[in-house]
Amino acid sequence: MRATPRRIELAMEDCQFVLDAHANEEVDEDDLAHARHALALCHYLRGDMALAAPWPQTPEQWANDGMQHFAEPLEPVDFDSHRFDGLMADLDTLVQRRDYRSAMAQVEEAERMLAQAGCGDAVKWAHVLDKKRFVSLELGLLDVNEAACRAAIARLEPETLWCYLPEHDVIRHTLRSCYFRLGTMRERDGLPLAELEADLALIDKALALAGPAEDAGVLDPFREGHAALLGILAAQQPSYKAAYRRAAALLV
Asked: CB-based contacts of 169: which residues, under 8 Å, 6+ apart?
């Protein structure tokens, strides 16, 4: 329904699939009502007003109907969750063994599975991209590492992170690690003030991202790098001296 142009025929097939699955325990009355309404909207968009008629809406109301704004499912129905979970379990084992070359092959396969299925589950993506960030750095694949960090930020930064969903902490962890990595990956000797400040902004993002249920210690790995960068900035720009002293005090 959100495609350009709209793929109305496929949307109608999906609606009918839900309606035909009414005996399935995973399909409830809200799902059925949603499918009926969406199917009527499809008929309206095709110009079949008689078939759209069961819903008492004017053409103007149909045209502005919120049902045209569908969200993609987090996990496509053809996604092999069992195989993905097995890959991730094997990946954890390989990382623990420090077999990073084998781990990279696993993480690339897991990433390929998510991409090919069009999976929108941010938690799954966070797990995979965080592993890719870590493993690529251990292997010294700095270009791959930077690309993984940027991909993670592009995909995860728009997500709304809810304080009551503990599974969102892995998204926070991945974003923190990627912000910090990008903010500390450059040689700082001779960098102009503006570029140092851009790196500081990334580290500040990492330090600002802590969920209410997370341990306060999750920010500790970033404090030394934060203080070090503030020290370099303070040497160039005296206005950073107070911030540097505060950051250094946290290391004691």
From this structure: 211, 213, 214
For residue range 52-90, list pLDDT tens digits in order.
766 656 655 655 555 444 455 555 556 788 999 999 999
Question: What is this structure's pTM?
Answer: 0.71
Contact (CB, 8 A) for 62 and 52: yes
The amino acid sitting at 52 is A
Q: 91-106, pLDDT tens digit by residue? A: 999 999 999 999 999 9
Pseudo-torsion of CA 215, 219, 223, 226, nearest 10°?
-160
Question: For the segment 111-156, what is each residue's pLDDT rounded down to a tens digit?
Answer: 999 998 888 899 999 999 999 999 999 999 999 999 999 999 999 9
Please check whether residue 203 is in contact with residue 179, taking contact to mean a CB–CB distance below 8 angstroms. Answer: yes
Alpha-carbon gap, residue 68 to 242, rounded angstroms: 52
C-alpha 87/C-alpha 135 separation (Å) is: 15
